[in-house]
Write a structure and sequence with these properties.
Layout lengths: L2 H9 E5 L3 H19 L3 H4 L8 E7 L2 E11 L2 E9 L6 H17 L4 E6 L1 H10 L3 E2 L15 E6 L13 H5 L13
Parallel strand pairs: 4-5
Antiparallel strand pairs: 1-2, 2-3, 3-4, 5-7, 6-7
InterPro entries: Acyl_CoA_acyltransferase, GNAT_dom
Organism: Aureimonas populi
Protein name: N-acetyltransferase domain-containing protein
């Protein structure tokens, strides 16, 4: 592995958006990738589900490079609004970032992932991340000429998911910070 690959791997991180600065980065990234590049209306990209979702921001060092949101349903986590800035759209970066979010889902007790994909990106989700196309679940979005595919996949269960048996203080902690010491102790 080259030195630059090692440095890039060590500088990539995923952060659960818990501050106004994180949400600013989510907004900027979605605006670049969806509104500017794909001409998708902002009213679709920024909707009422943003208030009920978990948002991730991906950073290379301190630079925001990608984002996604996850909504939680009975038995599955739905990935939405996944985007990466153009110069960071390579398989290594995308796979590493998405895998970090899989760990988060598993910690919450979810082992099934669902997402929708435009046809040109379906192979990324299937080959790189192991999801499968759900037959008969295609839908047309944004006036697309080709249908978006609904994809699903299983992720490994976490050995210690957050559950009713978790210590009470764990259940009080900020999303994704379940193992960090309490700030108020």
């Amino acid at each position: 592995m080259s030195q630059s690959s090692v440095n890039r791997k060590n500088s990539l991180r995923a952060v659960v958006a818990t501050t106004p600065e994180h949400m600013r980065d989510v907004t900027i990234l979605r605006s670049i990738c969806f509104v500017h590049e794909l001409d998708i209306p902002p009213a679709f990209i920024f909707d009422g589900n943003d208030s009920q979702a978990t948002h991730f921001v991906f950073y290379d060092g301190d630079e925001p490079i990608g984002a996604l949101r996850i909504r939680w349903f009975a038995g599955f986590a739905k990935y939405e609004r996944t985007c990466f800035r153009e110069k960071y759209r390579n398989p290594f970066i995308i796979k590493r970032c998405i895998q970090i979010t899989f760990e988060h889902c598993a910690r919450k007790g979810f082992t099934r992932i669902v997402t929708q994909s435009e046809p040109r990106l379906t192979r990324l989700w299937t080959k790189l991340l192991g999801l499968e196309v759900m037959e008969g679940k295609d839908t047309y979005l944004f006036g697309s000429e080709e249908p978006y595919h609904l994809l699903t996949g299983e992720i490994p269960a976490h050995p210690e998911p957050v559950s009713m048996d978790s210590p009470a203080e764990v259940l009080l902690r900020v999303e994704g910070a379940w193992d960090q010491a309490d700030r108020f102790s």
